[in-house]
Amino acid sequence: MEKATKIILSKRLKTIYDMVPFGTAIDVGADHGKLIIALANNNKISFGYAVENKLGPYNRLCQEIKKNNINNNILALLGDGIQCLKQYHVDTIIIAGMGGHLIIEILKKNVDYLNDVSTIIVDSHNDIPYVRKEIVNFGFCIEDEKIIYEKKTYYEIIKFKKSNHVINLTEEEYEFGPILMRFKSDAFTKKYQDELEQLGNILHIPNLDLNRQTIIKKRIERIKNIL
Hints:
This protein is an alpha/beta fold. The protein has nine helices and seven strands; from the N terminus they run αβαβαββαβαββαααα.
């Protein structure tokens, strides 16, 4: 048997790791399984499911689980999205490292399976306002949000909790994040200061289209209002 290697998580994965509550969890698009293996190794979850939809990544995932000697704590699954929830109960869904429309497509395809899910944690690479709005519409509220900077990229990681109440957020809150706006971390402030600088540089481009100028000036004003 291969000796298990110590799992070292990136800043992004460690942020997701810290948000996961105790219980059963599924990592959709688990890649090499670093996150779900770390959760199981440290008894952060009672049981984990790791999903890959292609045979090659699935086989690598199985090898990593076997290498870490945690076959009794994690089940690797070959399949699409969260269809396995028809068969297995899961408290927490983790979907990280995908585009926003794909994340919502995965959830919408099996929306009935979300009835027994209490937590959804997402790390969307784009279309984040859309992701917030759609998951809130599924009957969840935003419990926590973090923004981190790693490898020259800003990541927004959002934890949603099942809610019995209708959640009404403003368009601004969907766009910038209600919790991120409230606490204005250094990374949050820096992200939008960087964007303001980029937008300012664009405005100085000679002969810039007037319509584009108007759009950029409105965006600048919008960002300044939340900083």
